[in-house]
Design brief:
It is a single chain. Helices cover about 10% and strands about 35% of the residues. The protein is built from 2 helices and 10 strands. It has helices at about 55-60, 110-115, and strands at about 10-20, 25-35, 40-50, 70, 75, 80-95, 100, 135, 140, 150. The strands form 3 sheets. The protein has a 5-stranded antiparallel beta sheet with strand order 5-3-2-1-6, with no helix packed on it. The protein has a 3-stranded antiparallel beta sheet with strand order 8-9-10, with no helix packed on it. It is globular, with a radius of gyration of 16 Å. The structure holds FE2/S2 (inorganic) cluster (FES). FE2/S2 (inorganic) cluster binds near residues 127 and 148.
């Protein structure tokens, strides 16, 4: 994943959400990799929010984004909160270098899934799960999608450190 500099403007893929509460359209930056998560029994196609970029305060609040991290994902089918209208590039300011899914808990299913990747190599700093660019955090490489974490030197996935 490209290294972004806080304060700089970038063209970023954004989900266009027609928010039902106020009938307004909001552009929410996303990591451009729609997918399903059958391993976690989640068959719905979705995007993950890219919290490295400026997001409208109403969306920060409604999507519960804290320091660029959230447990919410954006469904490409319509939800009770919004109609998903597609993806469009927008010029947005980078405000931090980190983002990622706030993993709700260290569930047994997640840990079992994670263990299957331990020791795999992140070629060119890409996640062995779906090929996402990994981000550097605290001297490690962390995937912003589902949290696989690698050693920065060996590029190998290391055991999950359950908080
Ligand atoms: S894409 Fe799922 S952990 Fe990286």
């Amino acid at each position: 994943m490209m290294c972004h500099v806080p304060g700089e403007i970038y063209e970023v893929p954004c989900a266009i959400l027609l928010w039902k509460e106020d009938s307004r359209a909001y552009f929410v930056p996303v990591i451009d990799l729609p997918h399903t998560d059958l391993a976690f029994d989640f068959p719905h196609r979705h995007y993950h929010i890219d919290g490295r970029f400026e997001i409208h305060p109403r969306m920060v609040h409604r999507l519960q984004i804290n320091d660029g991290h959230t447990a919410m994902i954006l469904l490409t089918e319509n939800s009770g909160l919004y109609d998903f209208k597609g993806i469009a590039k927008q010029k947005l300011k980078c405000i931090r270098i980190e983002t990622g899914l706030a993993i709700p808990s260290c569930s047994e299913k997640y840990l079992d899934w994670y263990e299957g990747y331990v020791g795999q190599i992140c070629k060119e700093k890409r996640c062995p799960h779906l090929g996402t660019g990994m981000l550097e955090r605290d001297g490690k490489l962390v995937c912003p999608l589902h949290g696989l974490t690698a050693d920065l030197k060996t590029l190998k996935i290391i055991m999950y450190d359950c908080p």
